[in-house]
Amino acid sequence: MNTGPAEDVPPSCRDVVGLLAQTDRRAAYAALALGATTVTEVAELARLRPPAAAAALQKLTDGRIAAFDKEKRTYTLLDDALRLAVQAEVRLSGRGSGDGAGSYFRRGRLTSIPGKAEVRSRVLAVVKDSFEPGVAYSEAKVNAICGEWLDDWVSLRRALVDEGLLGRNESGTTYERV
């Protein structure tokens, strides 16, 4: 589970819909998706006045679906923001996009580990996001994180290792996200 600052938490699906409900913001988002990086480029491509483009970009940045590089004075989309919002929604609601993974989540927890390899990999990819890249975790910490997802944390930990999503050192004392 992500317990870092709010800036580290991706926007929710509700947040994304709210951000993109306004026409200027949708147009600015589309302009960024098409390669615009500055207020001027976004204004031209989105057919917005520069102040409206700047305001829309500020809202997208505040909403954590775009980022501003102060040094270069450019904007970019945060590519993972939408994917992470959907993953969080699946985890909370148990509803998926027809890929079968969503049915394995109820009230923010796993109901079981899927047997079908394709669905299993999608479910485990959601769990993998609970582990920060480059951080070494003790077995006890991995067990605690897995226990937040499923009562059978041993099987979940084993599945993450077997699927190559968590690596274990030779002595089996530390784990790292792969």
Describe this structure in words.
The chain is an alpha+beta fold and 178 residues long. Helices cover 49% and strands 12% of the residues. It has helices spanning 13-20, 23-33, 39-46, 50-62, 80-93, 117-128, 139-149, 153-162, and strands at 66-69, 74-77, 105-106, 109-110, 136-138, 166-168, 174-177. The chain has a three-stranded antiparallel beta sheet with strand order 5-7-6. Strand 1 and strand 2 form a beta hairpin. Helix 2 (23-33) crosses helix 4 and helix 3 (39-46) crosses helix 4. The two termini are 17 Å apart. Mean pLDDT is 87; it is low at 1-6.
Q: Report the helical percentage.
A: 40-55%
Mean pLDDT: 87
Radius of gyration: 19 Å
Shape: elongated
For the termini, the CA-CA separation is: 17 Å
Name the beta content range. Answer: 5-15%
